[in-house]
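How a chain folds remains the central question behind the approach discussed here. The record that follows shows the chain in one-letter code together with its fold in token form:
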Amino acid sequence: MPVIRTLSKVAKQALLASSGCGCQPLAVAVRNISFSPRQVTFDASFHSVSFSETDHPKVLITGGLGQLGVGLAKLLRKKFGNNNVILSDIRKPPSHVFHSGPFIYSDILDYKNLREIVVNNRITWLVHYSALLSAVGEANVPLARAVNITGLHNILDIAAEHGLRLFVPSTIGAFGPTSPRNPTPDLCIQRPRTIYGVSKVHAELMGEYYHHRYGLDFRCLRYPGIISADSQPGGGTTDYAVQIFHDAIKTGKFECNLRPDTRLPMMYIDDCLRATVEVMEAPVDTLSMRTYNINAMSFTPEELAQEVMKQLPELEVSYDIDQVRQAIADSWPMNFDDNNARNDWGWKHDYDLPELVQTMFNYIGSETRLAHVN
């Protein structure tokens, strides 16, 4: 390394100078200095590892026990092999997750721990899902700031240091009340009003900075509200669109915490996970930008309830507005413009609202029947 050669040259000159004056030569110990992006030189450059056609990436997923991590791991393991995808979290995994493939403890606020995991497991792709969501983040801003911003800095530095391909999701929450809402383009004023949204704008800009400054292969998708049947709501503003299915089947009653006319962009989880894999696999020369909107559908609580009642006509729906969540939703896009993703790397969704509702009922209904049998 240039640093080592420079230190060696200085040490040699010091030894020669000391021996010329009749003094005893000094024993100068020069140790190897491992590179850290926290000591980046002005001309530093990082590049992702390239793979041959027979190689597979080695993937680490942080925050792996959240809504998306387990599903993405399952998809990637089918594609790249079970042992090539490592789930990580700070929580104890349920038995079925632990036995489904590699799982490791990982705290994104512990830089040394993260670095060891990347090195010891020869990680080449990093999917960074660790984050506190919108409503939860507003209830604990210091923790959200630590997890969503400080944790991101650790991830960026490690990804840059080791030449990883890095995926960090963004969100509809990255926009604010002054953003164009219907539709919202990829590039426009953002100015979010939540710590979650602010941290996601920060992630977008820092990732793009690392890409342009150091060549980091950073990739980002702005997710709409994600609806999945096999995970419980996790504190997000769009969680009502998941809760309605569980409550409809279990109790026949649903109380919504948003106004019935609150329109937000949404997506079924299978589309979301497929989009994530597709953008990670997209050739570099197809990407005209590093942060893309993706979308599938846009609906209101009232429209969702009407579609649900086609399956369960006896469902009773009421509204008890949560003012915090409503204020958040009112500042978010009503519809995403995702034409760049569709044109650049061929994004195309599979699920519209009727398919979404049918799929959710099929899954949750079968799970409920199985639980009753057990």
User: Anything to note?
Assistant: Residues 171 and 223 are 5 Å apart (CA to CA). Residues 1-8, 10-35, 41-54 have pLDDT under 50 and may be disordered.
